[in-house]
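SEQUENCE-TO-STRUCTURE ENTRY
===========================
What this section holds: a protein sequence and its matching fold, both as plain text.
Question of interest: how does this chain fold, as expressed in backbone structure tokens?
***
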Amino acid sequence: MASDRDILPSWAKPSHYFISLYDIEYGGNFSYQGTVTINFDVKNDQKWNDVVLNAHQLKIKSAELKTDSSRESRNITYDEKRQRVTLDFGEQFQYSGEATLTIKFEGTINNIMAGFYRSKYKPQPNNDPPASVAQVGDFHYMFSTQFESCDARRAFPCFDEPNLKASFDVEIEIPEDQVALSNMPEKEVKKSRKSGFKTVLFDRTPVMSTYLLAWAIGDFEYVEAFTKRKYNGKNIPVRVYTTRGIKEQGQWALENCHQIVDYFSETFQIDYPLPKVDLLAVHEFSHGAMENWGLITYRTTAVLFDPKTSADKYRNRVAYVVAHELAHQWFGNLVTMDWWSELWLNEGFATWVGWFAIDHLYPDWNVWGQFVTESVQTAFQFDGLRYSHPIEVPVRDGLEVDQIFDSISYLKGSSVIRMLSAHLGEKVFLQGVADYLKAHQYGNATTNDLWSALSKASGKDVNSFMDNWIRKIGFPVLSVAEEPGQIGVRQQRFLLSGDVKPEEDETIWWIPLGLHTGSSPSTASLHKTNALTQKEDTVRDIDDSFYVVNKNLSGFYRTNYPPQRLVKLGDARHHLTVQDKIGIIGDAYANAVAGHGATPGLLALAEKFQDENDYLVWQQIISSVGHVRSTFAHTDDISDALKKFYLKLISPAAEKVGWEFKDGEGFLVGQLRAALILSAGLAGHQSTIEEALRRFDTYTSGDKGSLNPSLRSAVFSIAVKERGEPALKTVQNEYLTTTSVDGKEICLQSMGRVQTAELAQQVLSFIFSDKVALQDKHSGTIVLAANSKVNIEVWKFIRDNWDSTIYPTLGGNLVVLERFLRFGLNKFSDSAVADEIQEFFKDKDQRGYDRGIVVINDTIRSSDKYRRRDEGVVREWLQAHGYA
């Protein structure tokens, strides 16, 4: 047994499960009865008398073991902390070979979005569910599962580890007028012994991990399409399932889904291996989506889209999330990581290849520009903390893994994949991936298995230059020094706090330089020196008329240019790619925070971009300058001057883009309009405020068609900020009555724009009322936490209501709790607040959210250090340029 893991005894290996669920209680306690029969192989040369497997919050009633004879369980003991049950069958005996274990058990369909759980929803008008559908008050319920990472054990006793793969037969007893779904198609529907019920048996699954098993029960309907390619002579049916009355909102996901299944089948050179693809919209969902093989489950806003009422940004989100989850059908489901420490193999790759597919379908969306401004920059932010973690992180037991479903596994993982793909060439890289999948299909694999396949395909020793990127913490900043005709480059670990210690700076990363140089931006070409493989080096034959490092930000590192070079790059901005612009702005901000550069350099650079037309570049400007404004929000003279600076920066672009959406206008233009109106209005641009309030009044007086759905967020936010309580009440009412799939999320975020402590407490009380679903409690909090006017109220609310409200509400699902805390408390720039938070949590049992507390602490202290260091130079620059 691997000493670094706490795993089940290795001598018992499951091969097949038959799961039967029956006597489900549709209301009351929501209990159910189950029987599971597990075939497993015993390889044990010692005498034994018990079997250990995973079970959590289940009641085991009996167990029978069949080997060369039959035995009933004598004693059943639970280890709650390790979520295990030991079945004791009496006297010890010697046996190796095939064995069968049959367990009768009882469980509860919980309401914490983990295991087998229930989701509440309000039916659509004129779409009353059948009487058999569970109902409490105004809400009806659907049932579904969420087993990743370690919650199959909440639904049935099992060997719940990713490398203990088996096949599954599932049968479920349900009311005759409801629908049951699982990973595979229906095999048979039998009449139940109970009147009004039927038992649905599904086809046997392929060999797979327990976390990928799924089932669902509800008043479902669907829209359907078919793949264009044939698989085993047939076009595969693709369906989007919803509760009754909203299936048409699944059309956009459906349109993407069948194309992506075909595209990935060709890209990975392996046909999609199941006979169906179902996508299910789940009304309460802790994540964005879950890649259960053949039955992919989604948060409603990640799979449903209504062209008439949805904000257009959700079109992008739905397409991408559909692609990400479909990528997992191969990368994760067909080939699964050996252990949770290699989670990035699933998530990093699915993130990169999800965007790869969307770029193929929608080349005009500039997907890689979006990837650089959202994914790469977010990964930099988290990985710039001292207490980040490596992409491949040790996980002792499965219960630790939920906290590494984070920006490092997903976003740094995918950024490093993108860097490697750019270096090897896309075609060679994808061939290596296809070879890897073929070699390990229906099995488990490690990072080294992927490196081996890529090394063989490329003829390069991938492990030698990628190992540090995966197994070492952090990433480098490349500092550039100029001399005539050459540049010196030096790497060191980048920390936002700027105080890297020698012992933290021992890693030497392989850094692809992506260096372009020439007499002008338009004639620049790739330099022959392609990588830095030591701490520092000199690169000769540089034309200092123009050069840019890390072209298109394809390498995962920051670049620290000399101040005068930053000015020149700003002057050459019209010749830079969108990714290059995002890179130099993001780097200028991060280097200011860390002390490698200074904030005036960022502000001077940003000033040059007043004439920028690209949404993705503006997104980076808004983010970077917004962080600076937030950091100095409580230094009144600087805060006022930065507001003037920001208004001057953003006003021309906001006025130019206007309010009206034009026919044939590109997706990115609409996104630019929504972003600039929101930013300009919140910054105090008077004509934007007046128009927003006019449109708010027209919309809330009943003329819903008067406001483009993509501008609801801007208009609601500006109204709440400007008008306070009356507008807040109106938006809360909109939250309670909206029928738009994204309406609740938009309303919650808009409420976070309040300007007084009293209203902030009102918003938090509303969020923690039963009116807001568990999955959405972080949505309003994120914006409130980023609102420097009132974000201290979030900390006060958590501190004062921890025992009575926060922990009882969120503690059942630690993924949700950790996310709420991390997003709710990481925006302060005062170490005194960090001290308070640290003191408050020091005696709490932090298992399941301890990494989040470390991230909060590290982030606040880095911001505090930055604020203190740059306060003087920022004030001086603002005064010198007429803003103060």
